[in-house]
Write a structure and sequence with these properties.
The complex is a heterodimer of chains A (about 180) and B (about 100).
Chain A lengths: L3 H26 L9 E14 L7 E14 L8 E12 L7 E11 L5 E7 L5 E2 L11 E11 L6 E3 L4 E3 L11
Antiparallel strand pairs in A: 1-2, 2-5, 2-6, 3-4, 3-7, 7-8, 7-9
Chain B lengths: L1 H7 L5 H29 L2 H19 L21 H12 L6
Helix pairs in contact in B: 2-3
Classes of the chains: A mainly beta (about 180), B mainly alpha (about 100).
Protein name (chain A): Signal peptidase complex subunit 3
InterPro entries (chain A): SPC3
Main location (chain A): endoplasmic reticulum
Chain lengths: ~180, ~100
């Protein structure tokens, strides 16, 4: 003979098992989706300074500064298994000191339901763009790429790079003005 | 005393227990399937979870409390036998001659 408490326990456990099965099927319906999209990036102002990085050593390092435009339509990326997108803008370049440098200068979180069409003009960077050394002055080949991390309700978290990057160069002289 | 009697009164009979469990599983599966299809159509997994939760509440109301419909087929228990001295002796005799299966 089992009691009302046994029945309620069995019911709750069965409900949670069914929920787990539904979550797996939700993951299965979106497992092989393609999360790529195009982004248009453009730089408006580009400066480089040579200032001491007090958080590292006392030496003078190059600090880059760009004001940029960003345009992307990310609405097709959202489905019932996407909770939010974590976007980040990376600057990639090469210096005599280091073969590959990647610096994140801006990021944004877009949750499901929020406006997913990016049309920003004249954005200032969110994070400091320090170089390890003095490799930014006169650097002719710096690439800005937008990437995003898809955060699902259930399943893996793919990292996708947008098609469409922007290449620019830093000026040959340092700026000393405040910006 | 009233609490113990109330607790004992919560028991359904065996047939009622089987029916209650089967009914609760059918309800949950049905609401799960409907919730999944509806959630897929409107592309919101939160709606699927909500519909399943509604199914849980319905199954809880229908199958957890001992409704009268689950107590229709009570087992006919044997009457309590009186425990006299004679009964003990004959029972012990029966235990000694019990042949264990080979």
């Amino acid at each position: 003979m089992h009691s009302a408490f046994t029945r309620s326990h069995a019911l709750a456990a069965y409900t949670v098992s069914v929920l787990a099965g539904l979550t797996f099927v939700c993951f299965a319906t979106t497992a092989f989706r393609d999360y790529s999209a195009n982004a248009t990036i453009d730089t408006v102002t580009v400066l480089v300074r040579n200032v001491p990085d007090y958080s590292a050593s006392r030496e003078k390092n190059d600090m880059g500064f760009m004001i940029f435009d960003l345009k992307a339509d990310l609405r097709p990326l959202f489905n019932w298994n996407v909770k939010q997108l974590f976007l980040y803008l990376t600057a990639e370049y090469q210096t005599p000191n280091n073969k590959l440098n990647q610096v994140v200068i801006w990021d944004k979180i877009i949750q499901r339901g929020e406006n997913a069409v990016l049309d920003h003009k004249n954005i200032r960077p969110k994070y400091y763009f320090w170089d390890d050394g003095n490799g930014l002055k006169g650097n002719k080949n710096v690439t800005l790429t937008l990437s995003w991390n898809v955060i699902p309700n259930a399943g893996h978290l793919p990292n996708v790079v947008a098609t469409g990057s922007h290449r620019f160069s830093f000026p040959d002289e340092y700026t000393t003005s405040k910006m | 005393m009233g609490l113990v009697e109330w607790y004992n009164g919560l028991h359904m009979d065996y047939d009622g227990q089987a029916r209650a469990e089967k009914l609760s599983r059918i309800i949950i599966l049905l609401f799960g399937a409907v919730g999944f299809i509806w959630g897929y159509i409107i592309q919101q997994f939160s709606e699927t979870v909500r519909i399943l939760g509604a199914g849980f509440v319905l199954a809880a109301i229908l199958t957890i409390p001992p409704w009268p419909m689950y107590m229709k087929k009570a087992l006919a228990w044997q009457k309590v036998r009186p425990n006299t001295g004679e009964g003990d002796v004959s029972e012990r005799r029966r235990m000694r001659t019990y042949n264990f299966p080979v």
